[in-house]
């Protein structure tokens, strides 16, 4: 199976029939620095929340995930009224004590007792949550698979774009490498020209010029930076094309190192054309950074 990076954004839905109803599961995910999942279930199935979360997070390694589960019961579950006889008796004693204390006569009626809080309660048949789990598990797995499939499709699109941008950065780096080979020579020509204007017929001290050019060449040498930048680009492509799973943070680190080398090249080059190329490279690196924010 071809390895592919994943986006952190996606959506999946599925449903499954269960005894007495039907489950509908929706899972959506968005960008997030870490991994977390929020699960919303019918109130009487809250005991299954951790099972649902664990099931989803088996497939999702990074991103904020929201799981919404609803249930269509078709017909209502049986409901019954239950009387709390002990509570009603306590109410009756308290009312009789109150009547005696304030010297008020009168009988307590059944209707009066029934109207008091919690004497009569409407109760639905208790749900055995484990009985619902097989159907719910099936729906959650199917929705999670649909979510992952969408994240993979989006990840493939992002990978294509990032590889194109990495290629653009590499072409700019090669152009800079070619330009850098003539920077010292161009500086020497400018230096001799300026000295000729200042000194006129006075002979130029070639030894001093050679020393100045040696210092300039050492100060403006970007060979090591270009070598490291090429290495980072190779590693970046390797991660994008040959690794899967949660690679977003790894790509962020590689991109950070690429930015560091690019900044150093810009500060050392002392050449207008190289400076322009560095600005373009930074633009591509910033676009890469924005894309990486979407990678799992």
Give structural notes.
The chain has 296 residues and is of the alpha+beta class. It has three domains: 87 residues, Ribosomal Protein S5, domain 2 (2-Layer Sandwich), CATH 3.30.230; 46 residues, no CATH class; 139 residues, no CATH class. The protein contains nine helices and six strands, in the order E-E-E-H-E-E-H-H-E-H-H-H-H-H-H. Helix 1 links the parallel strand 3 and strand 4. Helix 5 runs antiparallel to helix 6, helix 7 packs antiparallel against helix 8 and helix 8 packs antiparallel against helix 9. The two termini are 19 Å apart.
Task: Describe this structure in a few short sentences.
This protein has nine helices and six strands. The protein has helices at 49-57, 85-101, 110-115, 129-180, 183-199, 206-220, 223-242, 248-268, 272-292, and strands at 10-18, 21-30, 35-40, 63-72, 79-83, 120-124. It has a four-stranded mixed sheet.
Q: Which term fits the overall shape?
A: elongated
Task: Note the run of SSEs as H and E.
Answer: EEEHEEHHEHHHHHH
End-to-end C-alpha gap: 19 Å
- Overall number of structural domains: 3
Strand order of the largest sheet: 1-2-4-3
By secondary-structure content and strand pairing, the structural class works out as alpha+beta
Strand fraction: 15-25%
Q: Can you give the mean pLDDT? A: 85
Low-confidence stretches: none
Please describe the biggest sheet, giving its number of strands, its sense, and whether it closes into a barrel: 4 strands, mixed
Q: How many β strands by DSSP?
A: 6
């Amino acid at each position: 199976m071809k390895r592919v990076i994943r986006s952190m954004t996606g959506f999946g839905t599925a449903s499954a029939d269960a005894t007495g109803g039907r489950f509908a599961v929706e899972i959506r995910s968005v960008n997030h620095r870490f991994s977390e999942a929020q699960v919303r279930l019918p109130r009487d199935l809250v005991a299954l929340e951790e099972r649902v979360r664990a099931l989803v997070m088996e497939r999702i390694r990074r991103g904020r995930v929201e799981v919404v589960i609803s249930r269509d019961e078709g017909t209502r579950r049986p409901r019954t009224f239950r009387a709390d006889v002990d509570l009603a008796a306590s109410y009756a004693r308290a009312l009789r004590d109150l009547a005696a204390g304030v010297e008020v006569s009168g009988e307590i009626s059944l209707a009066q007792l029934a109207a008091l809080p919690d004497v009569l309660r409407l109760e639905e048949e208790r749900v055995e949550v484990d009985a619902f789990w097989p159907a719910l598990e099936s729906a959650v797995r199917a929705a999670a698979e649909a979510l992952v499939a969408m994240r993979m499709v989006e990840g493939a699109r992002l990978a294509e774009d990032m590889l194109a941008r990495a290629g653009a950065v590499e072409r700019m780096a090669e152009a800079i490498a070619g330009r850098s080979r003539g920077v010292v020579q161009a500086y020497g020509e400018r230096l001799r020209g300026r000295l000729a204007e200042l000194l006129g017929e006075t002979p130029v001290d070639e030894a001093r010029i050679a020393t100045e050019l040696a210092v300039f060449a050492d100060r403006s040498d970007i060979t090591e930076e270009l070598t490291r930048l090429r290495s980072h680009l190779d590693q970046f492509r390797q991660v994008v094309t040959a690794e899967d799973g949660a690679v977003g943070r790894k790509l962020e680190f590689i991109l950070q190192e690429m930015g560091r080398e690019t900044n150093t090249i810009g500060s050392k080059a002392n050449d207008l054309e190289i400076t322009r190329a560095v600005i373009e490279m930074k633009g591509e690196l910033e676009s890469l950074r924005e894309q990486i924010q979407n990678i799992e």
